[in-house]
Every structure is written in C-alpha cells, then in structure tokens.
Amino acid sequence: MIYDLLAKFYDRFNGDADYTAWGDYVEENFRRFCTQGRPELVLDLCCGTGKMTFELARRGYDMTGVDYSPEMLNVARETEEKLSLPHPVLWLCQDAREFELYGTVDACVCCLDSVNHLTGRGDLLKTFSLVHNYLIPDGLFLFDVNTKEKFSSVYGDRCYAFEEDGVFCSWQNDYRPKSGLCDFYITLFSEKADGSYTRQDEVQTERAYSLRQLRRALAECGFEFLGAYRNLSFEEGDDGDLRLYIAARCKKPAPALPNEIKSE
After folding, report:
1. Mean pLDDT (the chain, rounded)
2. Would you say 182 and 173 are in contact if contact means Cβ atoms under 8 Å apart?
C-alpha cells in the first residue's frame, strides 16, 4: 500500500500544507453551517498521520481518526504520545468505504484530496453513505478534492521529483481524461544507516470528479449541498479551480441506495 510505503516521509512531502489556516477554515465552516452549535465529536476520515486530527484536537474537539494504513496510524500514535491534548484521539484502522464507528459524530472532515482516492464503481456513494449514517441530523461534512483541471494541467503525463535529507521520491503521472483516472508510478529511495539506499516502487490511482458528479453523489446519499469554495475562503469555486473545498449538511432520514451499490 502506497501510504504504508510513504508513512515515515508523508508529512515532509506535504510540508507546504498550512494546517493552522486550514483549522481556522474548518472552524469558520462550523460557525457558519452547524445549526446545533459548536461540534464536540469530530471524525477525521482518511486522517493519515493525523496532522489535521491534532490541529482540531488542540482546539478542544473530541477526535476520531480513521485511516486504512497501519503505518500512517502508527506515526500518528507516536506523535500523539509527545503531545498534550485535551482529549485522547480514538484511532481506527479501517477502509473509508467500510468504516464503523461506536456512535454518531457531530461533524466529519476529509482532507488532502482523500476523496480522489475513491476510484471504484460506487466507492463515492459507499463512503458518502457511511458518513451520512454516522453524522447526527444536520451534522456537517467537509472535504476537498483535486479537480479535473488539476489532473489535466498539473498532473497530466508529467514527472515530478522530491529530494530531502536522505529521501528521494519520483512519480510519473498517467492521466486519462475520458475515465478521469490518473495512475501515479512512484519510486522511493530512502537512505540506510550504512549510506546505501533502499528502493521501493508503488502504483497509486486517483479519480477526478466534476463538481456535478460530487453534488449528485451527495444528494443521493442524503446531503444538502452548502457550497464549493476556493482557496480556504467562501468565494464560490468551480471546475476551473485546481482544488475545491466542499461543505454539505446531513439531512435525515437517508435515502435508500441501490442494492448493487450496497453489496458491491
């Protein structure tokens, strides 16, 4: 699994993400859209190494972090041991398409284009349906996506490389606009204690979704679409942006999904 491969280096690869500003933006969404006041229980779905989980936990939210990668969660747990948080984080190693919680939550965040990793037929509906199931009535769902524009103009068929302190990572992109799928062929070299390097190779696939597709999936799963925004703001965004930040509100009861989606 790619994130088991990258777990130790993941935060260095995403060092340009401003989690303080992102946390401020999440809280402004809470203030604007949460009809039942400040959330207490918050789910960070596809939490990775827990950077957003910790950012919100420091602000007093009782956090649950769900991720499919044991190695990413191990990094998160090791980080938590060094922190002094108001509440301990509940970590669950589960697939976003099949996750189970112990009860409902007041809000769910899903950051760093994790939704783009839902590539299979029905995966988007499965995940959105589960988020809906575990949110309280009028609970808030916040997520971001890389757009088709980003897959086309930034990823495309280009090759990128990253190097820092004994780590070299390169990835070759293969984007197919007709299907919306993009394969990332990743090679990671990491330095060992003796100065030699270990090579690891992995392929990761993401899917580009249009705003129309996302709105339709949210509606099918019982969400009220609140907005799609750009640049951690409340300026209306569209498919021409590189990244969209989407807010939706859970309306109960949930509509029934087709049996083929449930059982796939």
Report:
1. 91
2. yes
Q: Say what the pTM is.
A: 0.91
* Residues 223 and 132 sit within 8 Å (Cβ to Cβ): yes
Model pLDDT for residues 131-178, shown as the tens digit of each residue: 999 999 999 999 999 999 999 999 999 998 888 777 888 889 999 999
User: Where do the domains of the chain lie, and which CATH numbers do they carry?
Assistant: 2-147+208-263 (3.40.50.150), 149-207 (2.20.25.110)
Q: Two tokens at 187?
A: 């090679």
User: Cα 129 to chain center, whole Å?
Assistant: 16
